[in-house]
Amino acid sequence: MATTFKHAMHTSPRAWRVSAAAACALAILAAGGRASAQSLRELGDLSLEELSQVEITSVSKRPEPLSQAPSAVYVITSDDIDRSGVTSLAEALRLAPNLEVARVNSQTYNISSRGMNSVNASNKLLVLVDGRSVYTPLFSSVFWDQQDLMLADVDRIEVISGPGGTLWGSNAMNGVINVITKSSADTQGGLVDAKVGDFTRRGEGRYGGKIGDVGTYRVYGLGFGEGSTRSPNGSSAMDSWRGKQGGFRTDLATLGNAFTFQGDIYENLIDDPGGRRSGGNVLGRWTKTLATGSLTVQAYYDQQDRISEVDTGGSFERTRTFDIEAEHLMNLGAHRIVWGAGQRNWNDRFTNTANPFVLMPPSENLSITNVFAQDTVAVSNAVKVTVGSKFEYSTFSGWQVMPNVRAGWRVSDDHFVWAAISRAVRPPSRLERDLSAPGIVNPSPDFVAEKLVAYEAGWRGQWSRRVSLSASLFYNDYDDLRTTKPNPATMFPVTFGNGWEGHTYGADLWGSMSPAPWWRIDAGLELLRKDFHLKPGEQDIAGTQTVLGHDPGHQVFLRSFMDLGPNVDLYIGLRQIGALSDVGVPSYVEADMRIAWHVTPRVELSLTGRNLVHRYHAEAFADGSVDQIPRSVYAGVRWTF
Question: pTM for the complete prediction?
């Protein structure tokens, strides 16, 4: 039922020879030219040993070195994004080995962490952009065709595998993606970037300046178009689309106070069937430096509109979100305390004339209220223990408690081990509570929150100045996962229940090696196993796919970043993804490649190839079919001034 409802809203070896030839050609070009503005030679060991000391904030909501964060966290850097040549946020997330990224069609992606990856099941991952949550209360997931930004303005993307409910709350069950953009002080001057190819077209520009002696600003605009994928029968899937977006950011600082104001507005158009995705957001943040810490207050407003048109009618959805939160960081002796509170309100309206599926009532006001506290105690110079909990009240599920206990031990200057036990929940969505279709499905007021208790342990080490490794093991124990329950007497109408329980377990491993100052190799491996069953007396006529997702048993990644002389850099990325055997999507190997020539310190030319091994390949199953993702090649030019 959920798939039908969502459909109403959406409507070779030869390649390797070509890649090798291109690499050789640009290596010749590298023999004489001007230096890259930021090369691996300039970074040197910074990409490994010193980058492990880069401060992150997503694990504990306070700055801490990546090497000492007690969590399975991977950081996608701005340099990684630039060198890989990706053109969207979803494609940039493929650079994280602890995520499952599967492209469904031209517009849609399934993205999850540690399993549960499908259109219906990928609702247990929290995605933030500069502290703004982008999931929708309609079905507790992310509309990736409405999440875009100028990638040149991204500072880093912190990807946490495992629960983050204590600090981040709802939907942070299997992981957290935190996209952090650069301060406007770091984006002064102008930038124009254009890419043109057989599948992808994109142009974007940005300009930054000063506001007297107290602050800086930037404004940007972008436009894009993407072609169609291929249907299983070999014809065009007719899912091409295009869009435009603009926005701004201002950062001010005076007398121990820091202010950030930013916003975006966008419109995306779907060619066939007709559709429109539009919206915008504004966010303000104030941070006050205190003698023993800091105080931050943040508020934002976000609106997402979706209009779909089909031969039999159409659908309209509008979600308005208002969120305000405050947090206080304190340093009290051996204690590092963060505590705060927040309030989020949604107003949602959905109408549908394409089929019988509607929400009853069609409009509703929802809210989430939370208070949280977490204390990190330095037991010794080498051992820290973190204890905390979030108490959250939502319209649909009442009070929920999300505690967390973590311990980290710095065995030596180069080795760190950690372990954690956490509880997280996912409150019911509008779809799960209010979906209705006469004679097919009734509203489900008894559907309750899905629950998880997660057990994790990991190790992070720097074996030498040129080799770093990270490994983590996990066991996730789930309860009250969604079922589609038949009527005991007549089968239909069905309702949603909480009849699935079970567990997943596996491992995340990744590492970096620098064989030479001009060459870095990143590798990653993810292993996943699932074991679920229905509770006694429970039934589910929709099967496992709607709740448990379609997950490969393994993923393998290998990426190479090279400086071919002083003015040319080369990126090659390989991935091998296991089969989705339950829906007939075979295992596949794919390769991406980008070569860039820095003609001058301000002008860069590039050539990017994506999915070079196969002309078409499948990655995901949705709405009863498997669309084929095409090979694509595009040329780019970037000018800074």
Answer: 0.92
